[in-house]
Design a protein that fits this description.
Chain B: Keywords: Iron. Chain B: Pfam families: FeoA. Chain B: This is Ferrous iron transport protein A. The structure holds 2 protein chains of 2 kinds. Chain A is α/β, with parallel strands linked by helices. Helix content of chain A is 61%, strand content 8%. Chain A has a domain of 188 residues: Rossmann fold (3-Layer(aba) Sandwich), CATH 3.40.50. A 7-stranded mixed β-sheet of chain A has the order 2-3-4-1-5-6-8, with helices on both faces. In chain A, strands 7-9 form a two-stranded antiparallel ribbon. Chain B contains 2 helices and 5 strands, in the order E-H-E-E-E-H-E. The longest helix of chain B has 5 residues. Classes of the chains: A alpha/beta, B mainly beta. Strand 12 of chain A pairs antiparallel with strand 4 of chain B, so a sheet runs across the interface.
């Protein structure tokens, strides 16, 4: 077997590094995290000529080896650490032809580490349009390297790149720049102290934490003690180093790289003028946001319905096919429902990332940051927080995943923590049913009270998000770069392949990462809701049947059966009188009897499941927490619904339907049944203005969504933040609901 | 302190002077914001902040507070748009 070559792909952001990675590896790639941190790790296998294989690691984009963020320090640490199993045999530095000068800064640094390096000049297809000419052979000679001129858009030059990779042993490892000239005395002393080490490497280790947090200095144990210079002196030396490198680069490019400036300008400037305009800029952004919103809110509804139907029928197929028993129930009601619950989110995630990757690929996202930065800054948020916050209004799960585009960790964390406050679509069924029940008819300035309440709840969600961001910004002590430098890349047409990979990757990582946790919790919730230890639970069928024998159906079911029957009778008689079809009296009473049996069977099933839920573990837990939820105006039945809806908020309505033993598919019935529920002590309706408002507020603020928690765990790589969210949001929701109920009652 | 990037008008250009201040982010230097280089103010965001500059072919957005750290010599003959 031939040896695998370790290749690191490195380059400035916006150079099309990811496109090169996709071209080299195809679908042979996997995305994960570096251990212990949330920096994305992309790796893949590339097949080279003559049966050689290369392991390609796509390092986070960086402008230089002077780290200013966690992402960059990951790249630097890997390049410095010879013992890392991914330490590259070869580095591919990706640059783009329009910004070659700036890209070469990083190239010279890597060259100075004596790592064999190939220079990829990407976006070669833009050269003629931009009036650029490059003398490749001369540039190769001056930089002492091999160059692949590539166009990932046209798929040109990849074969030559593969050829160069397989031939990496012939690359020169001579340094480009001798940095010791910036302070000969200092470097002389360094050399005396560490005669066996490479000076440039030492220099990088020493300066690692000048601009950013420390990376562990395990490489040279004593180097950190060699801090004979203050931070600001080191920084000054870094500046000198940068200037020195640019001098070198300018000298090289003089004879090899030419731009005809007259051709280069134009398109970008005029597009910028519109897209960052103080009025049109916002209008265009609002239109784009609305489109995204429409996509995840409306368009994803169709595939979601299909998924729901599919899993419902799969579940009943399993029940019908497998022999009845605990195992069948586990599969049909626990596992399949759980997987269905995960699959439900796939359309929303796919839609959001389709839009986001389009925004990123075209270069528009940077303009959004430019437009929104000033507005979001006071809250400790980034211009890029806007997209997650708005898409949180559809669903917090893709929104939290979308925060990956925010480079600054503190801004990203705050965005993750506050996004679940925005009113997601799962809150809507609860809001609608409770508002219909408790908010009186009437209008204010032409707007109905009910509509106003709904709008108020949306505003409340946004307000809570912004307000908590403000507080978090004050209390979170996270070191990070505090400055703001955003590159405004050139506008480009998105590459469909890159967009497709992003959508695929994000969906996969949700299903495999957060999906496991969601499945586990839904199985647990299912178990608690459909099992009980008492005889009451085990003999539910007989107990309920006996009760109905002696006492008849519950009052609500009795009246609803009677009214359903008379409506049915009326409908048939209507049809007969209009001669739609013929029926004699015997057939009519037969038909009515059949309908009655059907309705009674249905009522029996509903009362059994209600009784079972009441006596399940979940039912006991609901009763156990009644003292806690009582001050909010809830009884144990609502308590159970609050517990089960931890799986997902929309489950609240379904649980109430089960426990009130009505069919969960008829919204009007549930609402009528809820309206009929009487508080045994006050003899008044249980769902009144006070308890209704309390419920609305509770669901507005509470972290009632295990899927979001699972995603936050995945995105922050620790249980600390989701736990904090759960505790603080629930406590806050409880207090607000308590105050509301006690004041209104 | 003399004239800084923060005082440029839209479309105006200048040449960056020697830095007096080492609090300037290293990233700006890496992007080409070096003494002697030409800098152009391309666009100003609503609310006057951040600003969008073109320096040495790099198009970048920086906040006004950072722009105030970069001293320059205005090139007088650039037409103000």
């Amino acid at each position: 077997m031939s040896k695998q070559i370790n290749v690191a792909l490195i380059g400035n952001p916006n150079t099309g590094k990811t496109s090169v990675f996709n071209q080299l590896t195809g679908l042979n790639q996997k995305v994960g995290n570096y251990p212990g941190i949330t920096v994305e790790k992309k790796e893949g296998i590339c097949k080279l000529p003559r049966g050689i294989k290369a392991h390609i690691l796509d390092l986070p984009g960086t402008y230089s080896l002077n780290t200013t963020s966690l992402d960059e320090s990951v790249a630097v640490e890997l390049l410095l650490n010879k013992n890392d199993k991914n330490h590259p045999d070869l580095a591919i530095v990706v640059s783009d032809v329009e910004n070659l000068k700036r890209n070469l800064l990083l190239f010279t640094q890597i060259k100075d580490l004596k790592i064999p390096a190939i220079l990829v000049i990407n976006m070669a297809d833009r050269m003629s349009r931009k009036g650029i000419t490059v003398d490749i052979p001369l540039l190769e000679e001056k930089l002492n390297t091999k160059i692949a001129l590539v166009s990932t858009r046209k798929g040109v030059g990849i074969d030559r790149l593969k050829e160069l990779i397989s031939d990496y042993k012939n690359l020169s490892t001579v340094q480009n720049v001798d940095i010791t000239v910036i302070d000969p005395g200092y470097f002389q002393k360094l050399k005396e102290a560490f005669p066996n080490e490479d000076l440039y490497k030492l220099w990088l280790v020493i300066t690692q934490d000048v601009n950013f947090m420390p990376i562990e200095k395990k490489l040279f144990k004593d180097a950190s003690s060699f801090a004979t210079k203050s931070k600001s002196e080191l920084k000054r030396l870094q500046q000198k180093e940068t200037i020195l490198r640019y001098q070198f680069i300018n000298g090289i490019l003089k004879g090899t790289y030419k731009v005809d400036l007259a051709i280069a300008k134009g398109f970008r400037a005029s597009l910028d003028k519109v897209l960052t305009h103080k009025i049109f800029g916002y209008v265009i952004f609002m239109v784009i946001l609305l489109t995204i919103f429409q996509g995840i809110y409306e368009w994803s509804g169709y595939p979601q319905d299909l998924i729901e139907t599919f899993f419902a029928s799969a579940s009943s197929w399993v029940k019908d096919t497998l022999p009845p028993g605990v195992f069948t129930n586990l599969i049909a009601e626990g596992v399949l429902t759980g997987i269905g619950g995960i699959a439900m989110f796939i359309p929303q995630i796919a839609f959001l990332f389709l839009f986001i990757s389009l925004l990123e690929e075209t270069g528009y996202m940077s303009r959004v940051v430019f437009l929104m930065d000033r507005l979001m800054r006071p809250f400790g948020l980034s211009g890029k927080s806007v997209v997650p916050l708005i898409s949180g209004t559809a669903c917090a799960i893709p929104a939290v995943m979308a925060t990956r585009t925010i480079e600054n960790w503190k801004e990203r964390l705050i965005t993750i923590l506050v996004t679940p406050f925005t009113t997601c679509s799962a809150r809507l069924p609860i809001y609608i049913i409770i508002i219909a029940l408790v908010i009186p008819e009437g209008s204010f300035l032409g707007l109905g009270y009910k509509a106003l309440t709904l709008m108020l709840l949306y505003l409340l969600g946004f307000g809570a998000a912004i307000f908590s961001a403000l507080i978090l910004n004050k209390i979170l002590k996270i070191k990070g770069r505090s400055f703001f430098v955003v590159e405004m890349p050139n506008y480009k047409l998105p590459l469909p392949k890159n967009v497709a990979y992003t959508v695929w990757e994000k969906t996969k990582s949700f299903v495999l990462g957060a999906g496991k946790i969601i499945l586990a919790i839904s199985v647990v919730l299912w178990f608690l809701g459909s099992n009980g230890y008492a005889d009451d639970f085990k003999n539910a069928d007989e107990i309920v049947a006996n009760r109905i024998q002696t006492e008849g159906f519950s009052d609500f079911n009795q009246t609803s059966i009677v009214s359903a029957l008379s409506a049915y009778e009326l409908a048939i008689k209507d049809s007969i009188s209009t001669n739609a079809y013929q029926m004699d009296t015997a057939a009519l009473s037969d038909s009515l009897a059949q309908k009655q049996t059907f309705l009674e069977q249905k009522a029996l099933h509903q009362e059994i499941s209600s009784y079972k839920l009441e006596n399940s573990y979940m039912g006991y837990m609901g009763k156990a927490i009644e003292p806690i939820v009582h001050p909010l105006g809830y009884d144990w039945k609502i308590g159970i619904a609050v517990l089960t809806s931890f799986a997902a908020r929309e489950v609240f309505v379904g649980t109430l339907a089960t426990i009130y033993s009505v069919g969960s598919d008829e919204e009007q019935t549930i609402q009528n049944r809820m309206a009929a529920e009487i508080n045994p002590k006050t003899k008044k309706p249980l769902f009144n203005l006070a308890s209704g408002v309390s419920l609305l507020l509770f669901y507005a603020f509470a972290m009632q969504c295990m899927s979001t928690l699972a995603v936050v765990k995945r995105e922050t790589n620790t249980w600390k933040w989701p736990a904090a969210q759960l505790v603080f949001m629930s406590a806050f929701a409880y207090i607000v609901a308590l105050v509301a109920y006690q004041t209104l009652k | 302190m003399g004239i800084t990037v923060a005082q440029l008008k839209k479309g105006q250009k200048g040449i960056i002077k020697e830095f007096s201040d080492d609090s300037l982010p290293i990233k700006l230097l890496e992007l080409g914001c070096l003494p002697g280089n030409e800098i152009e103010l391309v666009q100003v965001a609503p609310f006057k902040d951040p600003i969008y500059i073109n320096v040495n072919g790099s198009h970048i957005a920086i906040r006004r507070e950072t722009a105030q750290l970069i001293e320059l010599e205005i090139i007088e003959d650039t037409p103000v748009l």
